[in-house]
């Protein structure tokens, strides 16, 4: 089965409630869909959101990189040559992790379809059922408490609390949410780079000393502040997870060797796709470092690929933050992975199992 063409489309889904972090506020899930055509008429689907302040990638840059730079290297290749195709994708251009991730998702979808098996089985098998946390956006305390209680009433057992806008307000937010819901849910924090290392130690020691128990604290400091992450890890008892500091497998090796993080958040859009995510999961497992599988604010094509990976790499990926599709008002993707609040169920269709995508807006590049 040979790759013959690559085309693009846009998929937009309004959110149930605005998604707010220390870095950005978003109202819709907007994905660029990458569709790979083959000589057998089989299609492969991938997708990527635009996250310039996290990855540096926009939908324009993703289309350019795929259409003008990476695509010509893989057109004509046989889908059975998975490793050779991924090698071309990874080495055709530096950076551009979202473009590489979207392409690799579509390639792995086709590869599993070629062997008529669900992707997670091609990646080694596993349990096709996962449970995700849910994001509680940063907001005023009453709104965060209401959102946390609603999420618990919907069956979510783990809440990912977004903070990082103002240190004293953040301490108040964490304390109030902990007081209200800690007996009913596990709490994770995500600061999205909003604090300094000293502020983090101050806030966390204060919270730890008054008995606030948190599962982990994610990316408290700027992405390039590896010394800061280490400074924090040495001074607090709550485990520290690297997110925006952990893009590539090489960065993860450095983080682990320098003792800067206790947990690694793997996202396909950061690490440049499934081939690299597998490397990170394997090398973290070798070092006894647990991983989270995360997602951007993105929809169910890209997140389905992450779910298949998590199912197959359960020995390394023990924490799941794949709530993107559940935050949307509906899922336009029919077939494949079912995202129902905290419950993620992988289908048994070949590849990602996608049968149809509603509301797809075809794009012609350049647009
Ligand atoms: C959606 C997921 N729960 C999440 O919080 N992901 C990111 C932020 C994604 C974005 O801004 O698009 C994270 O920082 O973990
Ligand atoms: Mg994060």
UniProtKB/TrEMBL annotation:
Coiled coil: none annotated. Its EC number is 5.1.1.-. GO terms for molecular function: metal ion binding; racemase and epimerase activity, acting on amino acids and derivatives. Keywords: Isomerase, Magnesium, Metal-binding. It is an enzyme of class 5 (isomerase). Mg(2+) binds at residues 190, 218, 243. SMART domains: MR_MLE. This is Dipeptide epimerase.
């Amino acid at each position: 089965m040979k790759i013959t063409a690559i085309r693009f489309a846009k998929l937009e889904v309004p959110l149930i409630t605005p998604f707010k972090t220390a870095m950005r506020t978003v109202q819709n899930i907007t994905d660029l869909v990458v569709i790979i055509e083959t000589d057998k008429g089989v299609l492969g689907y991938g997708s990527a959101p635009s996250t310039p302040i996290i990855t540096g990638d926009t939908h324009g840059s993703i289309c350019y990189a795929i259409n003008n730079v990476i695509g010509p290297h893989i057109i004509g290749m046989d889908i059975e040559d998975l490793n050779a195709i991924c090698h071309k994708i990874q080495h055709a251009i530096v950076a551009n992790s979202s473009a590489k991730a979207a392409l690799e998702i579509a390639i792995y979808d086709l590869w599993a379809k070629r062997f008529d098996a669900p992707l997670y089985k091609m990646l080694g098998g596993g349990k096709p059922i996962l449970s995700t946390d849910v994001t509680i956006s940063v907001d005023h305390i009453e709104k965060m408490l209401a959102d946390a209680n609603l999420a618990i009433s919907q069956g979510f057992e783990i809440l990912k609390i977004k903070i990082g806008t103002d240190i004293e307000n953040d301490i108040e937010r964490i304390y109030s949410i902990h007081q209200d819901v800690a007996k009913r849910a596990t709490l994770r924090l995500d600061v999205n780079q909003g604090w300094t290392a000293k502020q983090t130690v101050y806030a966390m020691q204060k919270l730890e000393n008054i008995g606030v128990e948190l599962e982990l604290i994610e990316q408290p400091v700027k992405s390039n502040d590896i010394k800061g992450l280490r400074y924090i890890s040495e001074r607090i008892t709550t485990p520290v997870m690297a997110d925006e500091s952990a893009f590539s497998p090489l960065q993860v090796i450095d983080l682990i060797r320098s003792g800067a993080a206790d947990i690694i958040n793997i996202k396909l859009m950061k690490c440049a796709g499934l081939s690299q995510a597998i490397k990170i999961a394997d090398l973290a497992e070798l070092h006894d470092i647990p991983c989270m599988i995360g997602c951007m604010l993105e929809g169910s094509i890209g997140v389905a690929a992450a779910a298949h990976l998590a199912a197959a790499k359960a020995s390394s990926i023990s924490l799941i933050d794949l709530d993107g599709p559940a935050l949307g008002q509906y899922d336009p993707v029919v077939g494949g992975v079912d995202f129902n609040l905290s419950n993620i169920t992988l289908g048994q269709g070949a590849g990602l199992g996608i049968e149809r995508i509603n509301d797809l807006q075809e794009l012609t590049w350049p647009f």
